[in-house]
Design a protein that fits this description.
Elements: E1 11-18, E2 21-37, E3 40-49, H1 51-57, E4 62-67, E5 73-77, E6 101-104, E7 116-117, H2 125-131, E8 138-143, E9 157-165, E10 171-174, E11 180-183, E12 186-189, E13 200-214, E14 221-243, E15 257-266, H3 267-274, H4 277-293, H5 315-325
Parallel strand pairs: 2-7
Antiparallel strand pairs: 1-2, 1-4, 2-3, 3-6, 4-5, 8-9, 8-13, 9-12, 10-11, 12-15, 13-14, 14-15
Length: 334
């Protein structure tokens, strides 16, 4: 099924510098929130990835590879000038079992990107159930394929699969440092590889058309399911399983074989972070700063249709508010 090209614009590649080359080994995606205060509209922009990817980037000047409107790609450093450390926000109550990390970013002119609407398109567990998205539904994973990532422009790869299972228990995964932990996730039948960690996972809502079929084991006739065009972000890629080749055929193991099942962290965990106390406090400070910069009100003509002017919010304002609300993350010991 055809995937809208705009979805590809929500994905960026994450990498660190090794010598003179930037090595990209993870995927992130872009989300925004819109908030209206006293007639003024504020937009807040975030980069989302897997927590284990963010931990591998901590302590380094890391880069996001972002496509530009002129057809090129640009390597944008995210550890800002003067040695300011990027703050990754984790789940406010259960970070140990939620492989998600979020950081605030600032869009730049000329970028050819799409920020996913965090209020509409990133759906909670409750909304996913209301929409009827469940086992068997088709999903799309959009991320980095490190072997073919694009030379002059980033080209995300799309992997198509199906929701395979919603376990009633946590799933065991292994970290890049070979530590075992358990995460809250569900399973998707689709191949995932290391660089796909942090990839957004989308699904379409199941709708019903005028027709029916005999429900298995009953005398009930139910509507036939079909797929809607609306896409929803239902999670991000966390991990996949590999088995030894000797478990399939009688040979000495050389490298693991991907079993074709990926672990996906529910979008609910992303919403928990974005609407958590730390980022909520940051947004409040940003809005207060913008309001303080506003000029005293002047008398206006009596019209209920007058537009309220937006107060500009500069990069300096953003960084100042970020420093006030952020917790400093100490660089890793190397």
């Amino acid at each position: 099924m055809l995937l809208p090209n705009e979805i590809l614009k929500s994905v960026v590649f994450l990498g660190v510098k090794r010598g003179e080359e930037i090595r990209y080994g993870g995927t992130g995606f872009l989300v925004y929130l819109e908030q209206i205060e006293d007639g003024r509209t504020f937009h807040f922009y975030y980069l989302v990835t897997a927590k284990h990817v963010s931990e591998q980037l901590a302590g380094d000047v890391f880069y996001i590879r972002v496509n530009q409107k002129d057809g090129s790609a640009k390597d944008v450093p995210l550890n800002w000038e003067q040695g300011n450390e990027v703050t990754w926000y984790q789940h406010p109550t259960d970070a140990a079992h939620a492989d998600v990390a979020v950081t605030a970013i600032e869009p730049q002119r000329g970028q050819d990107v799409l920020f996913i609407d965090g209020q509409i398109d990133v759906i909670s567990d409750e909304k996913r159930e209301q929409l009827g998205i469940g086992v068997g539904d088709e999903v799309f994973m959009v991320g980095l394929f490190s072997y073919v990532k694009g030379k002059s422009r980033s080209i995300p790869i799309v992997r198509v699969g199906n929701i395979a299972m919603f376990p009633n228990e946590r799933v065991k995964v292994k970290t890049p440092t070979n530590q075992e932990l358990e995460v809250d996730g569900f399973l998707v039948e689709a191949r995932s590889i290391q660089a796909a960690s942090g990839s957004p996972v989308f699904a379409r809502q199941t709708i019903y058309i005028v027709d029916s079929f005999h429900k298995w084991g009953t005398n009930v006739f139910e509507p036939v399911g079909a797929t809607a065009w609306t896409l929803y972000l239902i999670g991000l890629v966390c991990a996949h399983w590999e088995i030894k080749p000797s478990e399939i055929i009688d040979v000495e193991p050389t490298q693991g074989v991907n079993v074709g099942i990926a672990v996906v962290i529910p979008a609910q965990k992303i919403l928990d972070i974005i609407h958590g106390p730390e980022l909520k406090d940051m947004r409040r400070k940003i809005i207060e700063t913008a309001k303080a910069k506003g000029a005293p009100p002047a008398a206006t003509m009596d019209s209920g249709f007058a537009e309220v002017p937006l107060v500009p919010f500069t990069k300096a304002d953003f960084e100042q508010a970020l420093k006030k609300a952020s917790r400093k993350i100490e660089p890793r010991t190397k």
